[in-house]
Amino acid sequence: MQEISIQTHTDGKYQQRIRYIVDQVRTVNGLFDMPERFDGNSDLALDAIREAAEAVNVTIPSTFSPEQVKDRVLRITTAVKRKQRFATWPSIAMWSEISEKEQDRYIKDGKKHEAVTDSPKAGEWGSPEYWEGLEAKRIREGTEAVPETYVWGAGYHRLIASGQITEADIQPYRKWSRYSMEELYGPEETEALIEEKVRHGLSVAQDEDPSPQRREQMRGECERLTEKLAKQIKTQSRKPKAKEPERPDLKRMSVDELLEYVRSNPTTARPETINSLGDEK
Question: Which of 112, 129, 147 is the last residue of a domain?
Fold first, then answer.
């Protein structure tokens, strides 16, 4: 994909927020092919990225804190990646549609609750426990995207520990996540990526879990994955570089041998290479 530089201007709440959303849109677009109409025209491609970012931003309340913005954008980007079925960038219409649905869901979830000025108590609307409860509900119903932390990371362990979801509930999400990564990276690299996500989730969850027994189990599994990762890195660093295949000496070939070589290696035996043999005589 062609690299596009994003210019930023003045600071301020809006500039900081739109800059963050632009970066997230560009990250998602990087998973797909740039549309042909943008080839050689980075300004047009940049306009499309900014327009998609504005479509997201306009649906997010201006009263949102930076953490709320990040959570909302994460939900939107996750949904876009799951819904996009073409090889090229997601359309601006898709960004707009999914962003509006997220805002409608937020209004629906919160319209029965009074606005609070103090920090909400655990379990009350607006508290971390409340939002995690919504994520658990989405996982159990299996119809909506959830952030990756609830699939492989610490969020998954919190929901399991609290009994809000089961292993069976999360399997469809893990299956889809694995399939998506294999389409991009292949099975071997996907397995390594998943192990790293699980390892990181365990490293965070083992400090949060109230059960000493579960913390010890998490610590042991985290150490096992860390050792495995270290061995993989060490093994890869020791692998000898693949030797390039020896090229035959075309000058020493007979005409018949040369013709057979051209038939067997149509991409290697370029016409200009063959023609140069006669020029050097």
Answer: 112
Q: Which of 90, 111, 215 is nearest to 161 (CA)?
A: 215
What pTM does this model have? 0.45
Residue 191 and residue 148 share a domain? yes
> What domain range includes position 82?
1-112
Return the axis-axis angle of helices 128-141 and 167-185, rounded to nearest 10°. Answer: 80
Per-residue pLDDT of the chain (281 residues; tens, 9 = 90+): 344 333 433 346 788 889 899 999 988 888 888 888 888 888 888 889 999 999 999 999 888 888 888 888 988 988 888 888 888 899 999 999 999 988 888 887 765 444 444 555 666 665 677 878 888 998 999 888 888 888 988 888 889 888 999 999 999 999 998 998 888 888 888 888 888 888 888 887 777 776 788 888 888 888 888 888 777 776 665 555 555 566 667 667 777 777 777 677 655 545 544 455 554 44
